[in-house]
């Protein structure tokens, strides 16, 4: 009797575990949003394609504009933010006012930026995009393996992906982008969005490796909106950056601060909150009535990243301009992160930083 009862209990537990696994798989595949995601992806690709400007294909040219091509750091090289004129964040053809720029963008008239063969710059740029693609998918797969086999917290692996992509340009990008700011940002983000689309349900269902890679960014509490939120927030961030470049080029020097806060500060905020967070608060998300938890400790991390970014931009010099930046960017960045919808931190941090930069330029 005892053995029979034990067998029944075991069978019930096994059946329950199978049902749970099947439910988790259905959630991960996110079939309910596949049609909407396909339409959204197509719309975003069409917008990107329409904004690409004609790209020259001949002659060697002097490349004065060095935008970098990172996923979260398209226009500057954070690892060496003020080393040479080739690191200036603005197209020399634009109306850039150096009097309004922080010291990071001062140039030495005696130095000349390097002459780069155009075909070499094109090769370097597309080589970097290939390296970025392999690194993102490969890194996500390795981290996803840890989530699947060892139960690692997705909050950690997701932000590890973000940090990896933020610092990759400083490691893998050689030389300057051969294109202007709009095209560089569009191509970089376009490739990133294509990689995200490869992790959609249709592909994951047929290629197990992509399902494993997706596990590294798919927080259970985000389902079924994981990719929807990632793609839409990335697209809006791109729009905000281009608007900043087009309408307030005299303040674009502070784009580095916005990208550092959204790329490094926000990436570190969640692991810090998970590990040492003791003071939670709630936030909302788009297209759902769910609420999500953030922590004051995570927001403090965002604040600290803004403080560090401003110091880097101003070469650790304290003057009225840098003091005003120190008093505004960290606070506004932390508030934007705290009040933004779940997973939509980046576009709001960049947009609020742009507003701060414009205000500072008006009172300078």
Chart the SSEs and their pairings:
Layout: H1 2-29, H2 34-51, E1 61-62, E2 115-116, H3 118-150, H4 154-172, H5 181-198, H6 201-206, H7 208-215, H8 226-247, H9 255-276, E3 280-284, E4 291-295, H10 296-313, H11 320-339, H12 345-363
Antiparallel strand pairs: 1-2, 3-4
Helix pairs in contact: 2-5, 2-8, 3-4, 3-5, 3-7, 4-9, 5-8, 8-12, 9-10, 9-11, 9-12, 10-11, 11-12
C-alpha Rg, in Å? 23 Å
Based on secondary structure, the structural category is mainly alpha
Largest sheet: 2 strands, antiparallel
Unreliable stretches (pLDDT < 50, length at least 5) are 1-32, 50-113
State the strand order across the main sheet: 1-2
Number of strands: 4
> For the residues shown, what is the average pLDDT?
75
Q: What is the global morphology?
A: globular
Percent of residues in beta strands?
under 5%
The amount of helix comes to 55-70%
For the termini, the CA-CA separation is 86 Å
Order of helices and strands: HHEEHHHHHHHEEHHH
**Count of DSSP H/I helices:** 12
Would you mind describing this structure in some detail?
With 364 residues, the protein is mostly helical. Helix content is 63%, strand content 4%. The chain has 12 helices and 4 strands, in the order ααββαααααααββααα. The protein has a two-stranded antiparallel sheet with strand order 1-2. A two-stranded antiparallel sheet has the order 3-4. β3 (280-284) and β4 (291-295) form a beta hairpin. α2 (34-51) runs parallel beside α8, α3 runs antiparallel to α4 (154-172) and α9 (255-276) crosses α11 (320-339). The chain is globular and about 55 Å long. The N and C termini lie far apart (86 Å). The model is unreliable at 1-32 and 50-113 (pLDDT under 50).
């Amino acid at each position: 009797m005892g053995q029979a009862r034990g067998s029944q209990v075991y069978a019930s537990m096994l059946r329950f575990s199978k049902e749970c696994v099947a439910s988790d798989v259905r959630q991960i595949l996110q079939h309910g949003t596949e049609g909407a995601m396909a339409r959204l992806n197509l719309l975003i690709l069409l917008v990107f394609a329409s904004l690409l400007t004609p790209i020259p294909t001949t002659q060697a040219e002097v490349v004065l504009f060095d935008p970098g091509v990172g996923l979260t750091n398209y226009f500057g090289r954070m690892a060496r933010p003020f080393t040479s004129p080739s690191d200036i964040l603005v197209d020399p053809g634009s109306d850039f006012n150096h009097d309004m720029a922080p010291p990071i963008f001062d140039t030495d008239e005696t130095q000349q930026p390097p002459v780069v063969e155009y075909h070499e710059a094109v090769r370097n740029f597309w080589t970097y995009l290939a390296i970025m693609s392999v690194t993102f998918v490969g890194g996500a797969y390795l981290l996803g393996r840890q989530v699947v086999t060892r139960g690692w917290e997705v909050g950690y692996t997701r932000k590890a992906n973000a940090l990896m992509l933020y610092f990759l340009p400083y490691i893998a990008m050689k030389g300057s982008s051969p294109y202007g700011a709009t095209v560089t940002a569009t191509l970089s983000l376009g490739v990133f969005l294509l990689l995200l689309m490869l992790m959609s349900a249709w592909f994951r269902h047929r290629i197990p490796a992509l399902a494993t890679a997706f596990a590294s960014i798919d927080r259970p509490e985000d389902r079924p909106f994981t990719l929807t939120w990632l793609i839409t927030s990335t697209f809006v961030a791109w729009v905000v950056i281009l608007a900043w470049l087009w309408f307030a080029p005299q303040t674009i020097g502070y784009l580095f601060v916005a990208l550092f806060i959204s790329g490094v500060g926000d990436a570190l905020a969640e692991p810090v909150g998970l590990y040492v967070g003791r003071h939670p608060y709630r936030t909302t998300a788009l297209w759902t009535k769910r609420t999500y938890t953030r922590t004051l400790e995570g927001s403090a991390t965002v604040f600290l990243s803004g403080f560090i970014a401003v110091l880097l931009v101003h070469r650790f010099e304290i003057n009225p301009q840098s003091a005003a930046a120190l008093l505004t960017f960290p606070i506004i960045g932390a508030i934007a992160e705290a009040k933004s919808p779940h997973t939509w931190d980046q576009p709001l941090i960049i947009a609020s930083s742009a507003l701060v930069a414009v205000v500072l330029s008006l009172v300078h």
